[in-house]
Write the structure tokens for this entry.
Amino acid sequence: MNTQMRRAAVAVAATAMAVSLAACGSAKESGDKATETSAKKGDDLKIGLLLPENQTARYEKFDKPIIEEKVSELTNGKAKVIYANAKQDATLQSQQVETMITNKVDALIIDAVDSKAIANGVKKAKDAGIPVVAFDRLAEGPIDAYTSFDNEEVGHVQGKALLEALGDKAEGGTIVMMNGAITDPNAALFKKGAKAELDGKVKYGKEYDTKEWKPENANANMEAAITALGKDKIVGVYSANDGMAGGIITALKAAGLSKLPPVTGQDAELAGVQRIVAGEQFMSVYKPYAPEGAAAAEMAVALAKGKKLYPIATSTVDSPTHKAIPTVLVPVVSLTQANIQDTVLKDGIYTVDEICTAKYKAACDKLGLK
């Protein structure tokens, strides 16, 4: 793990369990039941880690090293993390689950490409005696535990920020809504939270569910929206994440807008933070990755060792297929120009040098970033 990432993990992993939020019940009973039949094992474990794609910077820059570091810490350096990335291919991810079963991993952490499509793979793992932790996205099938951010709250944070940015323009103003992929259950939660804030206050000129979360697809959708609505009629854009915000802003610039409408985002990707510094993107959602990754690692190691999940997971959620899944939910922060210093810089996610390259130095100086 690099120095910045280690600082971030130290800064927030210690409070990982403290920030678990109440969901829909106690995890004590379900957490106990989930491990009753597991055989007791020592530290010499194999933990499988399946991440969904590498288009979004967070997965390999943050999540993978955080989980590897925490698993090592919890097992005195004896456990091994076996990693694979599905590159946004649900079929490939199902094959990767089969490989993990063949490799006889002791527990499996899965961030599903497609939450429904993965259910059969989860069942196969469970049938093979391998407990499964759903990471970041609530997979269907018989999962044993789940950790993510409060995804509906993410949407609320985005919606509130967009209204704040719009001010008087919000009333009756036309916005474009660029949601995430329909295969990602989180996208529906982001949308639900955002619409709870925006409904009745703005007009939805165009709305898209963006295939595979790809920036190029968001770019094409935004070009279509500009053509249909007119570039001067769009007062703001709800973008569900930073990658898509980049594609959206490229389309807005190409349309010749001298002043960009406010655009939301999520994930606090470096490019997104730089656009916020430059005033091109209004906000992102900063999600402290260390406590989420730490929770996934803690639950996977506990399940592999046949230990109880309580008090690691203090709440539960229901998936479309299973009830009362032991859960750790991590809160989020609205990231704007006003709090870059106190969030991603303070937590060591990025350094000033990483953010304030030559292109952004003047804007950084104006904001007093140091």
